[in-house]
């Protein structure tokens, strides 16, 4: 058995409670990724059985259906909430979430019952941007003929970079020229600005990088931006 398949099978066997995407999460994903992400394939899981994680989710299962709604109400956020800075040192901690193929695994501490409950009027932090980040990795997997993504390549990138999430957007490089974690970080930051600081001009810079691959203008319109 090949190593990636064995690892995938092991994690699934040891997983905690799992669910499909909520209606709000599907609406968010379809607005941001369009037809390039099959939300019906995505499974969201709380925890990994053998990893001792301290806080269990209080409730799991499908969230109530919420219809697409009216213009967004911006939540007041700290001025630097969405600002990405390079890590001053290399260190590794168990991630808040990670992806294997179509499966998103959240630590119990960060597991969202519904990462986008309340959109477009309100948004949760950090659940919303964490989910946006992990959905990029699912998108990379589902579009691997274009992205070249695999869990092993993504993991190798993380192990061999001091800060795989930091990127420079000057000059507006092509989105697919960035590393896999950088791609996820760009989308995460774009979503962060869109939800919590939409007046910052950085959002236009990130939108320009994303526009050739994702329907970012439709996403912004769905938030009333």
Name a few traits of the molecule.
225 residues; alpha+beta; four-stranded mixed β-sheet; 8 helices; 4 strands; 37% helix; globular; disordered N terminus
Verbal overview:
- The protein starts with a helix and ends with a helix.
- The chain is built from 8 helices and 4 strands, in the order H-E-H-E-E-E-H-H-H-H-H-H.
- It has a 4-stranded mixed beta sheet with strand order 1-2-4-3, with helices on one face.
- The chain has helices spanning 3-13, 23-33, 127-142, 144-147, 151-159, 180-196, 202-210, 216-222; strands at 18-20, 43-46, 97-100, 103-106.
- Helices cover 37% and strands 7% of the residues.
- It has 225 residues and is α+β, with helices and mostly antiparallel strands.
- It is globular.
- Mean pLDDT is 82; it is low at 1-15 and 49-75.
- The chain has one domain.
Q: Please tell me what the overall shape is.
A: globular
The residue-averaged pLDDT reads 82
Q: Could you tell me the number of beta strands?
A: 4
How much helical structure, as a percent, in the residues? Answer: 25-40%
Q: In percent, how much strand structure appears in the residues? A: 5-15%
How far is the first residue's CA from the last residue's CA? 49 Å
Q: Name the strands of the widest sheet in spatial order.
A: 1-2-4-3
The string of secondary-structure elements, in order, is HEHEEEHHHHHH
Structural class assignment: alpha+beta
Evaluate the radius of gyration.
17 Å
């Amino acid at each position: 058995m090949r190593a990636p398949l064995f690892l995938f099978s092991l994690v699934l066997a040891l997983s905690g409670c799992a669910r499909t995407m909520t209606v709000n999460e599907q609406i968010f994903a379809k607005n941001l990724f369009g037809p390039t992400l099959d939300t019906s394939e995505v499974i969201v899981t709380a925890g990994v059985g053998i990893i001792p994680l301290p806080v269990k989710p209080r409730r799991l299962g499908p969230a109530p259906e919420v219809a697409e709604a009216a213009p967004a109400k911006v939540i007041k956020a700290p001025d630097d909430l969405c600002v990405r800075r390079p890590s001053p040192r290399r260190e590794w901690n168990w991630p808040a979430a990670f992806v294997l193929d179509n499966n998103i695994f959240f630590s119990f501490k960060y597991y969202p019952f519904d990462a986008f409950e309340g959109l477009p009027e309100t948004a949760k932090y950090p659940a919303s941007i964490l989910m946006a980040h992990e959905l990029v990795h699912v998108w990379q997997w589902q579009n691997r003929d274009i992205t070249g993504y695999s869990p092993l390549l993504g993991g190798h990138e993380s192990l061999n970079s001091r800060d795989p999430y930091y990127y420079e957007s000057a000059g507006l490089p092509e989105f697919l020229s960035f590393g896999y974690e950088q791609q996820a970080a760009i989308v995460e930051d774009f979503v962060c600005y869109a939800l919590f600081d939409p007046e910052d001009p950085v959002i236009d810079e990130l939108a320009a990088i994303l526009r050739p691959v994702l329907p970012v203008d439709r996403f912004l319109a769905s938030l009333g931006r």
